[in-house]
Amino acid sequence: MHGAKKRKIQIGTLYAALGALVLAFLLWQQSFPSITLWLAFAGAFAFFDWRSVEVNDRMLMSPTVMVALTAAVAFGPGTAALGVASMAALGAFSADDVRQRRWFQPIANFGQMVVTAGVSVYILEWFLRQAPDASSGDAFWLWIAGGSAVAATVYGLINYTFVTVAVRAVFEKRDMRPWSNLGQLLPSYLLMGFVGGLLGATYTVLPVVLPLVFVMFIVGYLSFASYGQLREAHEATLRGFIKALEAKDLYTRGHTERVAFFAQLVGEEMGFNGTRLERLRWAALIHDVGKLAVPRDLIRKKGKLTEDEYEELQIHAHVVEEILAEVEFLRPMVEIASSHHSHYDGGGYGGVGHTHGEQPSPEACILAVADAFDAMTSTRSYRMALSQDYAFSELRRHAGSQFDPDVVEALARALSRSTERYGSPHLASEEEARRLAEGTQVTSHG
Amino acid sequence: MGDPRVPIKSPLVPVVWALGSAALAYLLMGETEISILEVGIWAILLAEASLVSLPASSGNRLSLAIAVSAALPFVLISEGSVDLAAAGAASAMGLLGTWMFRTLRSDPAEEVMAAVLRHGFGVAAYLVVYTGSVSLAEIIPGLAGTDWVRLVAFSIAASLWFLIETSLWASMVFGRNRLSRRYLWLLAVKDWAVVLSLLTAGALFGFAWGKPGDPARLGFWAIVIAGIPYGFAHLAFYRSQESRRTYGQTIRALSRIPEVAGLSPKGHSDRTSGMAIEVGQDLGMTPDEVTDLQYSALMHDIGRITLNEPSILKMGFTDEDIARWGAEIVAEAPYLSRVATLVRQQHQPYRRPGEERDLELPLASKIIKATSAYDHATMELGFSPLEALEVLHRGAAYDFDPDVVQTVRRVLERRGVVPA
Asked: Which residues pair with A423 in a beta bridge?
């Protein structure tokens, strides 16, 4: 932890110094834009910057780049870079940071945002100076549109460089893969920058459109925000329900959360992102939902189930799956979840999402490995938890038949990077674990 | 609901429309410097735009035609002021086209007619008020004809349009179901964000498009400038609407888990919530309150999932336990904290012996208590609706709020299961 703190201070100082340098240079070079206009844009910038919306897995969406470039063109050359950089400096300090006494984030953000805004707008200014007069029509608009698209790309690149450096330096363990995300984000940066520049140019010709533009931004933003909130609420609801229902059972408590965690690790390791990763996580969350409807004594029974009992378990599980599959949005997740007992070579019993003899989807394979790994490394009614190494040797032994070998290796790689160890530190055989469980009387708490 | 469809598929229809509307436009426009071709183009745009619609929270569909109409007074200008005749002609032709195109697409005839009428009244008021406000401002020296006057006039006229559109919608839908005018109007007002973005996009386009010869004219760039921001907003509405629907479906699905596990009677939560919604609407709840009521009625028995536990069955349990367990489960989802409170209080009597009635108790909880008891009596105890209602009436001293019981009776009378 000591090293992390030191690196935090280094990064914070470096970023703040860079930001101050850029700001000082601009103060020396440029003059300040009209204060009323600056206040209007600074307000909008801060509003959007403090409330980024997560639209997709870890993809934050915020129209700040659009506001920044609209402001830049509206301010005009000679004042734009200073005006926008000072807006960005203000936006770096949010009320939340002050309240929670965070120092690293606002300081690093200050440097990152001032440099990003200052440099990209400085580039845009070159285009603004080249552009002919507005009365020349299309040529003017093309120069502005091109310049703002270039500036937006630069904005995105600098921003991501700063974020990547900071994240790599401070959170070593987290493998963020930001560059693959950047590929997805760049088109929207480009489009937003392009529109931003055009809106700014419209303002220079027709100042009356400014309130209309703000209304449009805010209404669109509010809807994105409500979409983001609902999406979060949806996941929180499902997660909360499953957690609460699971809590009643001593043995499966936390199982779903852990499987979702392992599945996500493997998914990231195998290069999933965005919707696909989210879908995998959701599938992991509901992979055992069928069991919630099964009488507890059946789930917790020691020893083998009779034929009838097994059938009852299956019926219950499938009925719940069918109910959830009625929700259009959940259907693909239910299909993954219900085929997680299928084997990699096509054997095993499949649910709604799997036909016998067919290779299950990669998602189902991931879920199968995550489920088996957690089952082995946690204590069950019939045996104690096994060690992580034993679990891996078991997974590898069945790789190619029951489990997908790539998935098993991906999990091993992902966990080898983590310092966390799962399962018992010493129990190395199934028999020993079962024998130990016979001796202990586990009582349940309702 | 059956939807009578007008069988108009003949290829002659567009020709008849074009000729008829050209004649109409000629009559309406009289002397003007705007060419009939230009008016025709706007009319076609309006009709085409009416085919692009997006879902709104009220269940009403709002179309892009609103944006096109909003732009009309900005683009149809002759001699420096709005050409009302041309704008009126373009709207009339456009609405005729809307009616025709949507009928050809086999949209329900009644719905198409209602949409055209609403739009017609709304846009007529919008055009007149806009023009009136702009000319009124001419009295004040220095203000005449500035862009800012046009912006203010637009805001006034657009607000009026929104009021007319929502009120008309409420009174058109009123009577087709049992919802009150106020409830329907509140439902329509929930669409403000969509309407606002459509109107704003239209005005933005209108300002930027300008009129020929204006130096500040952006021409075709106006399409990009108004179109892309609107596109973002459109996408956002679409997605948030979609996730709202999905969220409701998930809650419904989760509420059925105790039922398929055999821990709670089949269909009980669905029937209870169906009746609770009707009672809540009758008692003057707002649409948002009704949504909370719906969710909590669906999940009022979710606590029964705990009965899976053999030890609990042995110990025995009360209604209060079920309510508490249910609330604990629901409370795990932060978004549903209001619903959790309603679920927790659903078992409480509205009054206790020797005490005044409990004013803190939410109406929704009282409704769930009564409707759930009614469903229990009819479906499990095998009572007739009248006998079940009698159970509620007898419990009105402490358990069931008499107002709620009265409303349950009214709902049953309306459903025709109990004689009026």
From this structure: A387
